[in-house]
Amino acid sequence: MTRSLTEYELEVLPTLPVGPCELIVDGEHFARVVKNGIAKAKVSLDIMTADFKAMLVPTMRGGRKGRGRGRGAESIVQVFRRLAERGVEIRILHAGTPSAAALLELKRELPGNLVIRRCPRLHAKAVVIDARAMYLGSANLTGAGLGAKGDGKRNFEMGVWTEGAVMIEAVMGQFNLLWEGRQCGKCKRKDVCPVPLEEPEL
């Protein structure tokens, strides 16, 4: 009897060798996952998030080094746009409608290499960079999750960072199952997902 990929992965996932991993807690999320992860992608970004907001990413703006340089911020959508213009393929799978600010920016011009799909049942959070490094944990693509909010304002978050190929491959297998709609046929929540995997009115 031939088993489906879903059943196979559910069976072997608990026994997979995780490989070396690093614990990421609270404010460490921004530096590790966004600044030194997402922003440095060269080939691809695959993101699963329950919530998608136009979180602000601090930037340094102004004159030459050491002169007139001030701290500013740009939306994560702008970061995605810049990466897409460089040829990075970006896939974002999320559960609800993006925040109003994120939608406004996306409607201005959706980058050619950025594809967004929606699955209301999604609650997993993962960021896979260039299929070689991955964050897997509790943080959403929001200011209080992966963003740069300071202590006392951000969520209490926890996750792992790994470059373990076997674990990344397993997570990407689950991502692709959802991205390609292979779970849609037997889904019993079609009342909240009238058009599976399509973004409403971008």
Describe the overall structure.
The structure is a single chain. With 202 residues, this protein is an alpha+beta fold. The protein has one domain: Endonuclease, Chain A (2-Layer Sandwich). The protein has 5 helices and 9 strands; from the N terminus they run αβαβββαβαββββα. The strands form 2 sheets. It has a 7-stranded mixed β-sheet with strand order 1-9-8-7-2-5-6, with helices on both faces. Strand 7 (126-129) and strand 8 (133-137) form a beta hairpin.
Task: From the alpha carbons, calculate the radius of gyration and give it in angstroms.
Answer: 18 Å
Number of helices: 5
Unreliable spans are: 1-5, 62-70
CATH topology category name? Endonuclease, Chain A
Tally of domains:
1
User: What's the main sheet like?
Assistant: 7 strands, mixed
Helical residues, percent: 10-25%
Strand order of the largest sheet: 1-9-8-7-2-5-6
State the total count of DSSP E strands.
Answer: 9
Structural class: alpha+beta
**End-to-end Cα distance:** 43 Å
CATH superfamily, called what?
Endonuclease Chain A
What is the mean predicted local confidence, pLDDT? 84
Structural features:
202 residues, alpha+beta, Endonuclease, Chain A, seven-stranded mixed beta sheet, 25% strand, globular, disordered N terminus
